Amino acid sequence: MIRTQVYLPDELYRELKLLAASGKYKFSELLREGVEEVIRKKKKKAKGKHDPWKTDAVKDIDDYYKTGVVK
C-alpha cells in the first residue's frame, strides 16, 4: 500500500472525522472507499471511449520490457 498526502476542504475533513469517530469506520477506509467509488463512476462513464493506454505505442513498450525487442 502506498502512503500519500491530500488536501481536503475543512468541512469534508470534519464530516469524515465524525463518521470515523462513530467507531464503525476508519478515516483511511472512508477515503479509500470514496476513491474507489470515483474510479468506478469514471470508468463506467468512459466505457467505450478511446483508451490512450491501449495504443500500439504502449503495446510496443510493454513488448520491449517483456522481451527486449519491439515487434
Concise account of the structure shown:
The chain is mostly helical and 71 residues long.
Outline the structure in words.
This protein has one domain. The chain is built from three helices and no strands. By secondary structure, the chain is an all-alpha fold. The relative contact order is 0.07.
Please give the alpha-carbon distance between the first and last residues: 34 Å
Mean pLDDT value: 83
Tally of DSSP β-strands: 0
Instruction: Return the domain count.
Output: 1
Strand percent estimate:
under 5%
So how many helices? Answer: 3
Structure keywords:
71 residues; mainly alpha; 62% helix; elongated
List the helices and strands and how they pair.
Blueprint: H1 10-21, H2 27-46, H3 56-67
